[in-house]
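Chain A, query sequence.
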Amino acid sequence: MIPVSILTGFLGAGKTTLVNHILTAKHGKKIAVIENEFGEIGVDDGLVIETKEEIIEMNNGCICCTVRGDLIRIMHKLLKRKDKFDAILIETTGLADPAPVAQTFFMDEKIKQKAVLDAIITVVDAKHILAHLEEKKPEGVENESVEQVAFADKILLNKVDLVNGKMKATVLAKLRSINAFAEIIETSQSKVAPDRILGVGAFDLNRVMEMDPTFLDEDSEHQHDSTVTSVGIHVEGEVNLERLSDWLSDLLEEKGADIFRSKGLVAVRGSRDKHVFQGVHMMMSLGSSYDGFGRPWKEGEKRENKLVFIGRNLDREELNNSFRKCLVVPRGSKRRLPGACSTSDRITRSNSRARK
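Chain A, predicted structure.
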């Protein structure tokens, strides 16, 4: 039986960072990774480091509902392969309820014969989790962050370096009030020894059934918060790094409360490195493949930009148009995107500032 781990946690908690740590650790295991992204544009594939492991993407839908059938088909294919895996890791979108995903391993006969659910691992952002756990949802709409904590067998309390002792104690008490059984492991940058969370045999069906008697009911339904949406931007070309940084800073300062998660891969004019930005509400980091984030551009690879924003009250047109002002069109190019600045425009503005 192949052990399967479900990796969950709210948007921006540090799930992909944990996947990278697992893939680079010296554990000697062959691991298949199934990644699910909520947005219509996949970005996580560029955030995961180069590896020999099998990485499969599932985009534009939540694994617990709209693309659950894709998960079953992928599992069937993986389990049929002659070159067997030591483990399978499923990274869910930050808006997924882990229960329907876990249910798959008890309801599908082919999967039941060859795979066993090892553990549900929930990554928690120590700085932002309380606001999400305490958020009041409309009637009938579940709070995904509460479900993720409640069903966890292992909880990684991540980003503990960003909170003080009093705040951490409050978070720990809240987590314990929701789930008194899961081991809580405190981490920074999602760093944890893989053997503490993989191959641990921690999933307990009896405990889950006591908590949720409808767990094995295939007809049970859950409803996501329809006010949370995703906006994807996919544009060829290169950006001006200073303009991009200013745009992101202004955007998150003005609308960070409503932007739960932001992430992107961008091509910067004059750089061979892929640049990566990741944000959670108003907090943002910007780095590059030179710093160890993502992978560098390959020879002849098309230079393009892929960004995803997930949150409330997102204006797709405004986000697309404002981002395009960060693009640089080469001098002499006849094709010019709306709002983009040309190389000569940048030189003129630079000289003008210098004269002032």
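The radius of gyration is 22 Å. The chain has a mean pLDDT of 82.
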